[in-house]
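Hi both,

Apologies for the delay on this - the queue was longer than expected. I finally got the zinc ion-bound model through. Below you'll find the protein sequence and the ligand SMILES exactly as submitted, and right after that the structure tokens for the full complex including the ligand.
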Amino acid sequence: MQKNVVCRSCDLTVSITQIKKHYDCICPRCGRKLLSNNLVKEGDVAIVAFAALIFLFISIIEPFMSISAMGTGAAMSLNSIVSILNKQWGLLLYVFLFFTFFAPVSVLALIVFIGGFRLKPNIFLAKFYQFNHGMCMVDVFVLGIVVSLIKLTALADVTFYVGFYTTFIFSVLMIWCCLKFNPSILWEKIKKQSELKLIAGKSAMSQSYKVCQECGYVFKANDDIDLCPRCKSKVTYRRKNCISKSLALLLSALILYLPSNLYPVMYTEFIGSNTGSNIIEGVIEMWQMNSYFVSFVILLASIFIPAFKIISMLFILYATKYSKIVVNKRVSRLYRFVLFIGRWSLIDVYVVIIMSSIVKIGNILNIEPGFAIICFCSVVIITVFSAEAFDERLIWNKG
Ligand SMILES: [Zn+2]
Ligand SMILES: [Zn+2]
């Protein structure tokens, strides 16, 4: 059976006849994945999602690990981290809770209801699912735990309990569910894509068809601004003024990048003396303590990735604006890579949060967040917004 699809990255119409089992269909022009022959049944994903929720529940109530140093020790659970942090962290704690608890739980619950109980989604649920699906940061959180533990073993003895292992199982199941239950499954349930009478090899815009950036629905354009027949959002051929919006966000990220590296990320209070350390000092300190892995991860995630993202986005915007692009495919790949690595730079924020709660429970020493962590958090979030404000199709042809 032949079927036309439009690539959401470069607007090319591609004609697909058949995809083999376990194979993906890749856009011949820009390399984006168009479709994949994914044979996992929705009901099976729902069962795994339900199991993941049970593991999460166990992780919350069961003790996570115990730490002891200099004669004092304490057991801790995920639940106690939250109650202890509630006093000083305020807003940052809610950001943390949203990424690691609220977003994953709502994604899993929706998979159980829609995949398992055949609940019919509406536009609101599909948008809600799509938003939370992009916001799940469980994998980043797990790497944050690993880094914190390596840092901690230098200070104290750590023993693991059931809650620690269930958290790991939960995150593996969670990531699998996210991969297998795309937001497009929900959109297809609301309204199936009608058959497209398009000529393959040409862009959809040149045949006056529009692609909704929200839900991916392709339809014949009537006006300059149309309402998407599926999700009712406003659709134009190309996003208006997206280069200047993206650039403005990028410049504010650049301004915040300096204080985030110069000011202390955290203050450590140890037997009366209070010292602040910024990211670079933390990296050097861990290197001197022979924790090469930790210092490498922090250096990569906190200094190189944000700088790389800002420079790459500036390059992409410049190349698109002045159409000096000769290798569109590489620019397109670079853009998708920037989108992909965005979330990983949040790892340092997680490490500070986890470390400060663990040592507080153990009464070993006192770690408090510094001003730089707020700047750093903003840099990460603003660069993600900047990358998302950009319309990738402009790399291929101007609107
Ligand atoms: Zn493409
Ligand atoms: Zn739409």
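Main takeaway for now: The mean pLDDT is 84.

I'll put the files on the shared drive as well.

H.
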